[in-house]
Amino acid sequence: MSDTKTVGGGGTKLLLARFRLFFILILLMAVLSVVSPRFLSLENLSNVLWSVCIIGIMCSGFIYSPITGGIDLSVGSMVALAGIIANVLMNIVHMPMLPALLLTLVFGLLVGLVNGVVTTKFRVPPFIVTMAAKTYLFGIAMFVSNGDTITIMGPKDFLSIGVGKFLGLPIPIYIMVVMIIASHILLKHTVFGRRAIAVGANEVSAKLSGVNPDSTRILAYVISSGTATVAGIVMASLTQQAYAPNAAGYEFDVITAVVIGGTSLLGGSGSVAGALIGAVMVGFINNGLNLMNMPASFHPLVTGIVILIALILNQGFTLPAWMKPKKRAAGGQA
Fold it and tell me: Which of 61, 223, 279, 299 is close enough to 257 for a disulfide, judged by CB 3.0 to 4.6 Å?
């Protein structure tokens, strides 16, 4: 009988540990639904998903840089520049939409390639490399746009990417879901995914196993920049405008989402689904504050506190030794 209880208890603990983040999300939704009855309406939940789709798309590729032990701080600038490049090619050069978007994507992939090569072959810390990329990409965006906000009036098919709907849901949500699923499969069910985790966990062991850490990391940065480019295209279509500071600070929102989702910034572990849940949690918090009509000046404070609590709950909380009750001796004496 005691064995059954032990197994059951262990299974419950394993279940709670595995789905801890999901339970935290449900708890957050329950709290917000009590605070505002409008929160759980289908329209509101759809709007929240719509608002986090850019971050979700970015997370789908960004996650590979921290998994391999690096970081990509250039993704925010890449998002803004992608929208500007796409607009120039479609509305100034008058290139057909599909070739214009493909060429924009190629540019983004090349930026990731440069980040990866400089990081691995020249042994420059990824923080420095991608910070430099963040700066020069912003500079290119400012130069191309002349520092102005560009209104995107077409093509019609391009605008439908961001504002169109299918079966009642915005198209960007479908794009986000597809990219998250594809990234999850890439991480969990392909050779590259296993190699990325191995490189981030222990580079020496990965080398001994025949894995090339440099090529793995280069591909990680290519994927990160590529998904940021896709996010930039969707964002330009969604907002119907493009300008250099359009995605300022988005890199930190993405880092917050992946860390809440259980990805280690030290490398070797990560969850694409967890990153998406982290992004949704941040979106729910912001949405709840808006529904409560809380002044915008309080948003960063409340959001930061809730995120910190979520991180502690997700990582698991263990009492320090000095706070734990002392065990009694076998004879009943302290």
Answer: 279
